Amino acid sequence: FCQPGGWQLSKERKQPTFFVVVLTDIDSERHYCSCLTFYEAEINLQVRGGDQEIEGEEESGLIQPAEVFAPKSLVLVSRLDYPEIFRACLGLIYTVYVDSLNVSLETLIANLCSCLVPASGGSQ
């Protein structure tokens, strides 16, 4: 569900996309899946039809590693329907990851999970 258009490599970096999917379990409980998909340069390409890796050698017909981008998805699953809060959380994780900030992703996610979310309809 986090790659509805299919998993495809791209020759150009695409802008991140955000969307929400609602899954229903066997007990009719809703689960809101917030997805942030982005494209990252792929550096571990393998030669088609072989097991050897491309290591910067220029061979005709081969795509060089810096020219291919692969989709990655960050997914947050919750029983609460707060798409804008989840978008902000995933955007923060994305920014820390892409900008290689000096913050542990594990610590960041633990801090986000420990935040209190107000009851629906209550004050912010």
UniProtKB/TrEMBL annotation:
<dbReference type="Pfam" id="PF02141">
    <property type="entry name" value="DENN"/>
</dbReference>
<dbReference type="GO" id="GO:0031410">
    <property type="term" value="C:cytoplasmic vesicle"/>
</dbReference>
<dbReference type="InterPro" id="IPR005113">
    <property type="entry name" value="uDENN_dom"/>
</dbReference>
<dbReference type="Pfam" id="PF03456">
    <property type="entry name" value="uDENN"/>
</dbReference>
<dbReference type="InterPro" id="IPR051696">
    <property type="entry name" value="DENN_Domain_GEFs"/>
</dbReference>
<dbReference type="GO" id="GO:0032483">
    <property type="term" value="P:regulation of Rab protein signal transduction"/>
</dbReference>
<keyword id="KW-0344">Guanine-nucleotide releasing factor</keyword>
<feature type="domain" description="UDENN">
    <location>
        <begin position="1"/>
        <end position="124"/>
    </location>
</feature>
<protein>
    <submittedName>
        <fullName>MTMRD protein</fullName>
    </submittedName>
</protein>
<dbReference type="InterPro" id="IPR001194">
    <property type="entry name" value="cDENN_dom"/>
</dbReference>
<dbReference type="InterPro" id="IPR037516">
    <property type="entry name" value="Tripartite_DENN"/>
</dbReference>
<dbReference type="GO" id="GO:0005085">
    <property type="term" value="F:guanyl-nucleotide exchange factor activity"/>
</dbReference>
